[in-house]
């Protein structure tokens, strides 16, 4: 039997990556490495939701579940940006 797992991915990865890129415009002080750290911090605060197709997950969600995902995503990203910024300022020599 042949297995194909190439389509399996964490649903939140694409959302987080796109949102970090979008929000990076408001944070010109962030380097690309820092933005990668923001994505990691945010993803670690979100549950792993593995799917084969994003549309499959969205189809089965209620409006309340969609709202909860949007809120959790926003909270995780805000935390990620704040967390990385706080630690980067600690490393700057005075």
Overall morphology: globular
Please provide the count of β strands: 2
In sequence order, what are the helices and strands, one letter per element? EHHEHH
Secondary structure: helix percent: 55-70%
Nearest-integer average pLDDT? 92
Calculate Rg over CA atoms. 16 Å
List low-confidence stretches.
none
Oligomer: single chain
Strand order of the largest sheet: 1-2
Overall description:
By secondary structure, the chain is mainly α. The chain has one domain (9-91). The protein has four helices and two strands; from the N terminus they run E-H-H-E-H-H. Strands 1-2 form a two-stranded antiparallel ribbon. Helix 1 crosses helix 2 and helix 2 (32-45) packs across helix 4 (63-91). The longest helix is centred in the C-terminal third of the chain and has 29 residues, at 63-91. It is globular and about 50 Å long.
Brief overview:
With 94 residues, this protein is mainly alpha-helical. It is 67% helix and 4% strand.
Topology:
Elements: E1 9-10, H1 11-23, H2 32-45, E2 50-51, H3 54-60, H4 63-91
Antiparallel strand pairs: 1-2
Helix pairs in contact: 1-2, 2-4
Which key terms come to mind for this protein?
94 residues; 4 helices
